[in-house]
Amino acid sequence: MSRELKIVLIVFGLFAALVIVSFVVLVIELPHMAKSIAQSGRDPVAAKKTAEKIATFTLPPGYAYDTATDMGFTQIVSVAPSDPRQRGFRIQLQGSVVPSNDSSQVEGMKLGMGLVSRFAQCDLKDDGTDDVTVRGVVVKLAVVDCPDGKIPMRIETGTFPGNAAHATITAMGIEGRDFDTTALHALLQSVR
């Protein structure tokens, strides 16, 4: 057998072993993920438990957990006004074991806003940053506005020190009507 054929067989064998191991892990982990997603959903007790994996915080007055998902390696919690008439604003927190930096978070947000801007028919406006102190650390939230479109959107996003290895927050709402900077700052400043 030639040396090249041995190398090809070894590489193919390693690839096949990786595929088999990945499949086995997926089969074992998938029921757990499905169960945790189903349990979190809109249950406020499960949502609070999931939220505490991301960060320990106090909900702003007039706000409640909307949805929560815990997939083991990542958690997502959505917080919204309790009053259904003010449902144009959401704060989403995400915790992950996979670290990320602020610049990749901002680039991902801008990519998402690009899609939103096409839907809302407006031009994006980079509005700099909004600074909030969390656990004694100044957190810079990237601010992107879409003020002149069919739906005038505002999004603020950034990373902050939480309980998860990597914690991010994204707030999105209709600018000038539903976007609640006070609630966003209150939530972040309450992180302990």
Description of the structure:
The structure is a single chain. The protein is 40% helix and 32% strand. By secondary structure, it is an alpha+beta fold. It folds into 2 domains: 1-40; 41-189, Protein Transport Mog1p, Chain A, CATH 3.40.1000. A 7-stranded antiparallel β-sheet has the order 1-2-3-7-6-5-4. A hairpin with a 7-residue loop joins strand 2 and strand 3 (89-96). It starts with a helix and ends with a helix. The relative contact order is 0.15. The mean pLDDT is 79.
How would the blueprint of this fold be written?
Layout: H1 3-40, H2 44-54, E1 63-70, E2 74-81, E3 89-96, H3 102-120, E4 125-134, E5 137-146, E6 153-160, E7 166-174, H4 181-189
Antiparallel strand pairs: 1-2, 2-3, 3-7, 4-5, 5-6, 6-7
Per the CATH scheme, the topology name of the largest domain is Protein Transport Mog1p, Chain A
Side-by-side strand order of the widest sheet: 1-2-3-7-6-5-4
The biggest beta sheet reads: 7 strands, antiparallel
Overall radius of gyration? 21 Å
